[in-house]
Design goal:
The protein is mainly alpha-helical. Helices cover 55% and strands 7% of the residues. Helix 2 crosses helix 4.
């Protein structure tokens, strides 16, 4: 279940499609259920689950997963006995369910540190390139002035 109206949702769906491709599989569009990031919207989208005959769902946000869980529990269906559900974002509300919702966590601090590290390393490399180029230009300029004398 994915919010295809958001960049994040589209990026997560594209990751799924890429992973399928790496395994030589094609996307079955009928298995892609769409929902906004609101629990009531996910609840409505979950009604399509019966149509696709799936027993496992990856929700691209925890709110989508929570709407799905609400729909399942109201119908006497349980996770993980009847359905396997994985959310995304690992929000605090995941722990409210028994068993707790399995969710993919993005460690924003770790991702930010890694991105900054890469950026500073590249800037440092670029700075070294500029310094080397300027040094080489200065040497050529100095050599040219020496020949003119």
């Amino acid at each position: 279940m994915v919010n295809t109206a958001s960049n994040t949702g589209c990026a997560r769906l594209n990751g799924y499609v890429r992973a399928l491709g790496e395994k030589g599989l094609e996307l079955d569009q009928s298995l892609v259920l769409t929902s906004d990031y609101y629990i009531p919207d996910a609840y409505l989208a979950a009604q399509q689950l019966i149509r696709v005959n799936a027993t496992a769902v990856v929700a691209t946000s925890d709110n989508i997963a929570l709407g799905l869980l609400r729909y399942l529990y109201e119908r006497g269906l349980h996770v993980p006995r009847d359905y396997s559900v994985v959310g995304y974002d690992n929000s605090i509300s995941d722990a409210l369910f028994e068993p707790a919702l399995t969710s993919i966590e993005q460690n924003v601090d770790e991702l930010s540190d890694a991105a900054l590290s890469i950026m500073f390393r590249r800037l440092g490399e670029r700075g070294a390139d500029v310094e080397a180029r300027d040094q080489a230009a200065a040497e050529v300029d100095a050599a040219g002035q020496e020949k003119r004398r």
